[in-house]
Amino acid sequence: MATGTQTGTTDTARGTWGSQMGFILAAAGSAVGLGHIWRFPYVTGANGGAAFVLLYIGAVFLIGVPILFAELTLGRHSNRNPVGAIKAIVGNSSWKYLGYLGVATGVFILSYYTLIAGWTFGYIFKTLLRDATTFDQFTNQGLLNAGLYMAFILMTVGVVYGGVRGGIERWSKILMPILPVLLLFIIIYSLTLPGSMAGVQFYLRPDFSSLTGQSVLVALGQAFFANSLGMGAMVTYGSYLSKDQNIITSGLGVVSFGILISFLAGFAVFPAVFAMGQSPAEGAALVFVVLPEIFNMMPGGILVGFIFFLLLSIAALTSTVSLLEVPVAFLIDEKAVRRKVAVWLMAGVTVLFGIPSALSFGAVDFFTELPLLAGLSFFDVMDYIFGNVALPLGGMMFAIFVAWRWGILNAANEIALGNRKFLGVQSAAWGFVLRYVCPVVIFVVMLNTTGVLGLIGL
Question: What does the radius of gyration of the chain's CA atoms come to, in whole angstroms?
Fold first, then answer.
């Protein structure tokens, strides 16, 4: 199968990134999604503020960076999707099912992640119209949820349809620089509010006594889940890298951009929360319940709310693009399907499982409370299976595959093609963490997110 740029090749050609910066922005777009701007502020608020931020940054470099390097290296070595990447190393062995797990995880996470993304898009108009509908009432409207879902899927299709350079890289270069600009606008506005300095102190002055063992697990989980690891996205994006591109500097650029956006998101949220006398520990409701109330009380709050939810929508779009690209690359590589056909086919599969999620917040009783599942909704089941189990399981197994099956030396030699200095102490340290630390830590995180640790009293 041909390999080349999108221009002048067949529709089944894979494509490559046009530049290192293009890759960094695209991969950062994959990583920087709702996990950074929606989830990070509320888990930080619930775990003590500044001390948790430091814990999170440490967790990113302990867990996120080593696995990111491993997935990018696996992709570049093979120039294939997760299934093809594994087959290129071990042939048609049982390891290929790890690749299939990555592809499936991407599809099914996309199916319900797009629903949340649709909410952020809907809240842009809800804010502008000063709609007083509560979040529960908003999510209970089946037709509205399905409509927002379809709108977001179509936006995602529009980007992926254009290919690697003409679609993903092009739009990443446009959208990603907008994120820090919008965040800075909200930060400057929030800091002008009376009482905002209390939020700044909460966010910048560490109180390590507020940390618990659960805080450590949450930080490790956030570091893993917020960086698009375990679903094959970084394997796929790595497969579009040329051999002379530096995986180390590119990977660190992706992670650094993600940390920056997370940090700015907290800086945008907490001064406003404290200025308006609200609690930072509101959990997942912080963005969709508490912040809209704050925007309604603020002078000029309509504009601020519009910009904030526009920001969330952009971040969500860059992530849904990477989630759709994984199965699309699989069909192009393994089944020789034309890109345009692959995009529509996988979008259709996503919608098939996504619409039930959109109807599982009260619109349809069957999907809201599935029979024989203790009142769990279709959305809850999908998130539990693929977000809490399949995603960390995939990340753990990718780490094991690269470290133990492919081998640290082989992987390090691939990295060294773009960075000769990596061989030696750096590769040895990376190999140790990938072999012994990452699998154990991710396994514990998985037990925590699935509730197993609570069941056994830990």
Answer: 21
In a domain, 120, yes or no: yes
How many C-beta atoms surround the C-beta of residue 330 within 10 A?
27
Three-state secondary structure call for residue 297: helix
State the pLDDT at residue 8. 36
In-domain check, residue 3: no
Q: Is the pLDDT of residue 59 over 60?
A: yes
**Alpha carbon distance 292, 276 (integer Å):** 12
The end-to-end CA distance of the chain, in Å, is 51
Residue 436 maps to a domain: yes
Q: Whole-structure pTM over 0.85, yes or no?
A: yes
Structural domain including 215 reads 20-455
Tally the domains of the chain: 1
d(CA 87, CA 95): 8
Measured between alpha carbons, how far is 344 from 327 in angstroms, rounded to an integer? 11
Burial class (CB in 10 A: 0-12, 13-18, 19+), 416: middle
Residues in CB range of 399: below 8 A, 6 or more apart: 66, 67, 70, 434, 438, 439, 442
> In angstroms, rounded to a whole number, what is the distance separating the alpha carbons of residues 56 and 250?
21
